[in-house]
Design a protein that fits this description.
Layout: H1 2-6, H2 12-29, E1 38-42, E2 48-51, H3 57-62, H4 64-67, E3 68-71, E4 77-80, H5 88-98, E5 107-111, H6 114-121, E6 138-141, H7 149-160, E7 165-168, E8 172-177, H8 180-202
Parallel strand pairs: 6-7
Antiparallel strand pairs: 1-2, 1-5, 2-3, 3-4, 5-8, 7-8
Bound molecules: zinc ion.
Length: 203
C-alpha cells in the first residue's frame, strides 16, 4: 500500500476512501463516460495524488490504491501503476497558481458535467446567481484541446484571478476546493444552477 507510507499523518485509508467516494458519485452521475474526468489531492509534503491516465471513475471507486498515481510538484511520477492523468499539467499549474493566494485549495475535481457545458455555450450567457456560487465564482475558458499546455495555462490564469469553478468550453469543468468531496458538491450545486438557467433560456 504505497500511499500509506507518505500519508501517515493524514490517514492514507481516509484519503483512498475519499477518492473512491467522489469517483463513485461522478460515475453514478454519468459525468465521466469511459475514462473522462480526473481527480487530484495536494499532500502536505507537496506531492500530488492524481488519478491514472486511462482509468475510469468506476476503477477509482473500486480500487483507488491501484488507480492512483503519486507525482512530485514538477509532475514526475513517484509511485503508482499507471502514468498520471493526461490533464495532469492543468492540475499542476492550477495548484501553483493558487499556492500563495489560496493555500487551502488542496483538491481538484475535473468532470464532464453536461448542464454547465450547455450553459457556457449560450450566447448571451445567462448570469448564474452569484450568492449561490462558491467564493470567487465561475469562469469560462475558451476551448483548447484536452491535455494541452494552452488548456492548462488558461485554467491556471482563471484560478489565479480567483475563480473556484472553471468551465473548459466544449469539454468540462474543474472545481478548486479544500477536499475532493467539497469539489464534488460545488460541481453538483453549479450543475443545478446551470440546468435552471438553461431551461429558463429555452422557455
Ligand atoms: Zn476532461
Amino acid at each position: 500500500m504505497w500511499l500509506m507510507e507518505t500519508d501517515a499523518d493524514s490517514g492514507g485509508t481516509d484519503l483512498l476512501d475519499e477518492f473512491a467516494y467522489v469517483a463513485r458519485a461522478l460515475a453514478e452521475h454519468g459525468w465521466c463516460v469511459a475514462n473522462a474526468g480526473n481527480l487530484s489531492q495536494l499532500m502536505p509534503d507537496g506531492t500530488i495524488i492524481v488519478t491514472g491516465a486511462g482509468t475510469t471513475m468506476a476503477e477509482v471507486a473500486v480500487d483507488p490504491g491501484r488507480a492512483l498515481v503519486q507525482i512530485d510538484a514538477e509532475g514526475e511520477k513517484l509511485a503508482g501503476y499507471y502514468e498520471p492523468s493526461s490533464e495532469v499539467l492543468a492540475h499542476l499549474l492550477t495548484y501553483q497558481a493558487v499556492r500563495e493566494s489560496r493555500p487551502h485549495i488542496t483538491a481538484l475535481v475535473h468532470t464532464h458535467s453536461p448542464a454547465l457545458l450547455v450553459w457556457a455555450s449560450l450566447d448571451p450567457r445567462p448570469e448564474l446567481p452569484k450568492d449561490k456560487l462558491p467564493e470567487g465564482g465561475i469562469a469560462v475558458n475558451p476551448y483548447f484541446p484536452p491535455g494541452t499546455r494552452e488548456l492548462a495555462d488558461a485554467c491556471a490564469e482563471a484560478a489565479a484571478e480567483g475563480a473556484s469553478l472553471i468551465v473548459w468550453e466544449k469539454h468540462g469543468v474543474i472545481a478548486l476546493a479544500r477536499t475532493l468531496s467539497a469539489g464534488l458538491e460545488m460541481i453538483e450545486a453549479a450543475e443545478d444552477l446551470a440546468q435552471a438557467a438553461v431551461y429558463a433560456d429555452e422557455a
